[in-house]
Each structure stands twice: as C-alpha cells, then as structure tokens.
Automatic annotation (TrEMBL):
It comes from Mongoliibacter ruber. The lineage of its organism: Bacteria, Pseudomonadati, Bacteroidota, Cytophagia, Cytophagales. GO terms for biological process: inositol metabolic process; phosphatidylinositol phosphate biosynthetic process; signal transduction. CDD domains: IMPase. Belongs to the inositol monophosphatase superfamily. One of its GO terms (molecular function) is inositol monophosphate 1-phosphatase activity. This is Inositol-1-monophosphatase. Gene3D superfamilies: 3.40.190.80, Fructose-1,6-Bisphosphatase, subunit A, domain 1. Its cofactor is Mg(2+). Keywords: Hydrolase, Magnesium, Metal-binding. Mg(2+) binds at residues 70, 86, 88-89, 214.
Length: 263
C-alpha cells in the first residue's frame, strides 16, 4: 500500500487507538511503575505497550517500512519508507497527571518526511498532514498565524534532558525572548509544540537535544500549514541534528537572527 491518502487514514486510526489505550491507563496509573532511561528521561509500561500497538498496526499498513521509535523498536535496513514514532510524547507530564501528551507518528520516504499524525490524547485533537495536501485538525484545515515580528509572538520551547554544557546559551536565548515577545510557554511535548504553531496558537518553537521521533510528525504538519523549519544555523539538519527552530514563516528570519547572536 503506497497510496499516502489511504496510509494517512489508517495512521490516524492507529494513533487514536493508541491514544485510547493511553487515556484509559491514565485513570489508574501508579507513578511507582516508572523507569528511568537517564537523567530526567522517564518511561512507563504505558509508553511500551502503546508502541507495541502502533508498530503492530503500522506493519500491516506498510509492511515494507523500517522503524525508528523511542521505546526500542528499531529496524533500519535501508528500505524506502521509515516510520518515526513517539508513542507517548510528554511522558513526564503523563506520569505526573499533567494532561498534555500526544501520540506522534511520522513517515519518511528516503530522506523526505511525507506524512505526520499527532494525536493529543486528552483533548481529542488529531493533527495530521501528508506532503502537498495541507494540514488539518479533526477534519478542518489549519494554517499558521499572521504575526510578522517576535514582539507580536508567543514562543514555545522545551528543556534539554542532557547536553547541559549548552544550557547557559539556552538561558540567554530565553532571557532575550522574554524581553522581546508576548511570552514563553513550556508544554512538555515537542510534537504538541509544533502543532500549536501549525494551527496558530503560537508563532514559534525552538529546542535542542531532541530526537527524530520528537519532531518528525510535527514537522510535516507545520510545513503543510505554511510554517518554516530549520536548525539553528538556518539549514535543514533538524531531524537528526538535535536542534530545531520552527515558526509561522513570517517571524523566521528575525527569530533565527536572535538565536544566532547567542548560539
């Protein structure tokens, strides 16, 4: 099955199925059932089971695809298609009962991201896009906002799990943005951050120390909604380069300039 339209429909169904499982488990989740993969990097049985659900269904949808997934499913044999999955983006929020977390599923064809689905579990908001066909949320088209300067903008960001040798520069960027823009928000889910820029709730997003599964789906959605995405140098190494700058396109040059003054 290489019809992206049909693949997208089935991927949306998959994300919602995994989301329903996560939502149900959240009602009785015991925080003591949490494991640590590293400093500030948590995982639960819910992440792992949700990934099993997703991978099982995606194998049926596109058997000829590889996988990059957060909780251990890694099959990279050089196939044309690669699924890039975060079964529960915002695990720390989930563990602490904060209702902002999402299922994130992206699809890459060779070196090009072609499809993305982000399902915000507790708000029942499903963001999705396929290349060349626009971006949508729950069946309605979405588009980035119109503000053209940082002074008119709300910016979302995330905190690093590691790479703390860069934290001083990151904090300098935060201070500069606090002095410049409408405000800063830290939601705890990069997939959600990207989708909020895509639908106009925020104008910009930046973060470093990220993995491909944090951003793959959201990048497709934002790009199809009219947004711009780059790394901190203005290049395209945002998927594997562990840093991303995303915007409504209008503020991108100014946003990039301010970050490059410090980073």
């Amino acid at each position: 099955m290489n019809d992206l339209s049909e693949i997208l429909t089935k991927t949306i169904e998959t994300a919602k199925t995994a989301g329903a499982f996560i939502r149900n488990e959240s009602k009785t989740f015991d925080r003591s059932k949490t494991e640590s993969k590293g400093l500030n990097d948590l995982v639960s049985y819910v992440d792992k089971e949700a990934e099993k659900i997703i991978v099982s269904r995606l194998k049926e949808i596109l058997p000829e695809a590889d996988f990059i997934a957060e909780e251990g499913t890694a099959v990279q044999s050089g196939k044309d298609y690669t699924w890039i999955i975060d079964p529960l983006d915002g695990t720390t929020n989930f563990i602490h009962g904060i209702p902002i977390f999402a299922v994130s599923i992206g699809l890459k064809h060779h070196d090009e991201l072609v499809l993305g689905v982000v399902y915000e579990v507790n708000f029942d908001e499903c963001f999705y896009a396929r290349k060349g066909n626009g971006a949508f949320m729950n069946g309605k088209p979405i588009h980035v906002s119109k503000p053209a300067t940082l002074s008119e903008s709300l910016v979302v960001t995330g905190f690093p799990y590691s790479a703390f040798e860069k934290i001083d520069d990151y904090l300098k960027i935060l201070r500069k943005l606090m002095e410049t823009c409408h405000g800063l928000r830290r939601l705890g889910s990069a997939a959600t951050d990207l989708c909020y820029v895509a639908c106009g709730r925020a104008e910009g997003f930046f973060e470093y120390d990220l993995k491909p599964y944090d951003v793959a789906a959201g990048v497709v959605i934002l790009s199809e909604a009219g947004g711009s995405v780059s790394d901190f140098s203005g290049g395209n190494d945002f998927l594997f380069g562990r840093e991303i700058l995303a915007s409504n396109s209008h503020i991108h040059p100014e946003f990039l300039t301010e970050i490059q003054k410090i980073w």
